[in-house]
Amino acid sequence: MIEFIGSRWEDILYRSYQHTSLVVQSVIIATVIALLLAVLVTRYRSLSPVANAVSAIGLTLPSFALIGLLIPLVGIGTVPAVVLVVFYAVLPILRNAVVGLQGVDGLVVEAARGQGMGSGAIFWRVRLPLAWPVILTGIRVSAQMSMGVAAIAAYVLGPGLGGYIFTGLSQVGGANALNYALVGTFGIIVLALLVDAVLVLLARFTTSKGIRA
Question: What mean pLDDT do residues 168-194 have?
Answer without folding.
Answer: 89
